[in-house]
Amino acid sequence: MKKVRKAVIPAAGFGTRFLPVTKSVCKEMLPIVDKPTLLYIIEEAVASGIEDILVVTGRNKKILEDFFDYTPELDALLENDGKRELLEISKKMENLANLYFVRQKHPVGFADAVMNAKAFTGDEPFAILLGDDVIYTDKDTVPGIQQLIDCYYDTGKPTVAVMEVADSDVPKYANIKGEEISKNRYAIEKIVEKPSIQNKFTNNAVIGRYVVERDIYDIIRNTKPSPKGEVYFTDALQTLASENRLIGCKFEGKRYDAGNKLEFLQANVEYALRDPELSDGFKEYILKLSELLKQK
Ligand code: G1P
């Protein structure tokens, strides 16, 4: 079986949930503490053995490429000032992985974004990571996409990440039905994009991590568009499920929806509390604030 060495990150969306900031700063650059959300996704892929990463961008997303580029003026300044630690942080961004960028000409959804990766992935199986889903794993836990890659190696079948959600969150995600074949692994029979609570199969939702093979391109091409005119990636996955070739992997780790304001703020608070430099001061502040809030 071929190794999963490549990953695709769709990042062409407008980020309308974060207007007005997304008029000129793309949502993938919004920071959780001091790193853009896209960097968390790339670090997860790299920690999972991914070597080549294609970011599918769009117009007004040049800032993403610049972030991973050489910054000679800044680096010279840090060098002159003897700020070695900061210089290392800056240099690290240049050498994280082999990064490639392609523009999705007409941002018509996730499946169309994936189609832009065909030449990049060639014959190899590949991972897909959606930028809004940030998965925190502690140092003793296998990174999110690595858990799916392991499942793909064990089962030989394309795999999607699954998480149990409350009824009220069911309509936000693809929803699956399937039998648990081994601990936290499901043979998916049915998968549907964002059902109403009444029409859900289960409370198992699909989160933005996938491992697929090269046949996904033909499947997408042969999938009928939804009434809104968009081919849903989820409908393409249903073809795999119908052939008994799709596994759901309930992953370990805490997932944040960085595309949602409340969860983005929660992610910032929790990552700050985990940061050795910030945690003491920040904790003290939060405790004081919660006392004040209680008095109100
Ligand atoms: C996308 C997918 C959906 C999936 C979700 C995971 O939706 O279309 O199937 O469950 O990501 O976050 P979006 O969040 O882009 O609306």
Structure write-up:
It is a single chain. Helices cover 35% and strands 23% of the residues. 36% of the residues are buried. The radius of gyration is 20 Å and the shape is globular. By secondary structure, it is of the alpha/beta class. Helix 3 packs antiparallel against helix 4 (84-92). The model has no long low-confidence stretch (mean pLDDT 95). A 5-stranded mixed beta barrel has the order 8-11-9-10-12. A two-stranded antiparallel ribbon has the order 2-3. A two-stranded antiparallel ribbon has the order 7-13. The site of 1-O-phosphono-alpha-D-glucopyranose has 12 residues, from strand 11. 1-O-phosphono-alpha-D-glucopyranose (G1P) binds at residues 110, 130, 132-133, 173-174, 193, 205-208, 234.
